[in-house]
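Collaborator request, handled under Task 6.
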Amino acid sequence: MYDITGAVSLWDHLAETSKPIIIYGMGDGAQKILDVCSLKNVKISGFMASDDFVRGHSFAGFEVKKLSDIERQFGDCIILVAFGTHIDEVIQRIIAISDRHELYAPDVPVIGGGLFTKEYAEEHRAELERVYSMLADEKSKQVFDGWLEYRITGRIHPLLRNQTDKAEGYEILDLGGNETYADLGAYNGDTITEFLEVTGGQFNKIFAMEPDGKNYAKMKRIHYKLSPYAFRTVNAGAWSCDTVCEFISKGGRNSSLIPYEKGKPVNPSRIKEIEMRSLDSFVKDERVTYIKYDVEGSESEALDGSKTVIKRDKPKLLVSLYHRTEDMFALPIKVTELNPSYKLYLRQHPYIPAWDMNLYCI
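Structure tokens returned to the collaborator:
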């Protein structure tokens, strides 16, 4: 496994450097990084955006500038990428900037708190080593090592050297023409479309759960040709039991999936009551052969709500591992506790930062 002890911590390096530090991006990701920098006594000198997005914006009291203007003002500097992208053109732009400047994509959790620092990795070394030892092939171990190095150092190249196309993940799953697929976090039906493409449109049944009303309606429109008997849907989030939870509606892909913590200030109009369902309750006695979990930080609860199905049917699983700080080790361990016979494969599909990091369980 990657040498945690010998690693150079990103946040320590940023606190000690004499170079100007520039945050690349605006919005929620930039604010999260700015908050961590404040906590770690890291001084920020400015903000930048891609040339197409610079239109007199300001962020956190800084004028947002083009890279060329940043270079004229500061010369050599450190760039912190504060947004996520899977678009190849944008990834290539980030790589080109990294050839000219020190560049990092700090690892901050998509959901929840805590940071995956060198100290955190040391504290959870036993769990990390346990997961590393459980991985079924050498590629998975390479991905794990690169991911661990990235999370501590913030360097993007450990990620880039291990990325593979989604097709490789589907090869691991080896989906046939008679699958019963449970899509937890179905969004607008995009992964159902992928499933149908991989299986040539042949399947037994599809169960789809999506909590956001707009996404749910779009999914239904896109897949309106599917038979209601074969395509079972529910406008609910995946959880450990059937209940109603309060969430903060954020909009976009992770809409309505940020748990509301009482006592924290938030606009009351953004707090929504969302129906939650366990997969066990949804499918009842139906045999399931494949489950996808991409539920914006609720993966642990969704796995708890699938205990009966997993133990009974031993379905293939695809589990997103990138939402919470602890997912890297907590979710693989939970999966193997539910079914010790699973073989675990880790793959990261093209993305900066380490989003679209998936655990494939066979």
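The cover message to the collaborator said: "The chain has 15 helices and 17 strands. The longest strand covers residues 271-277. Please let us know whether this matches your experimental observations."
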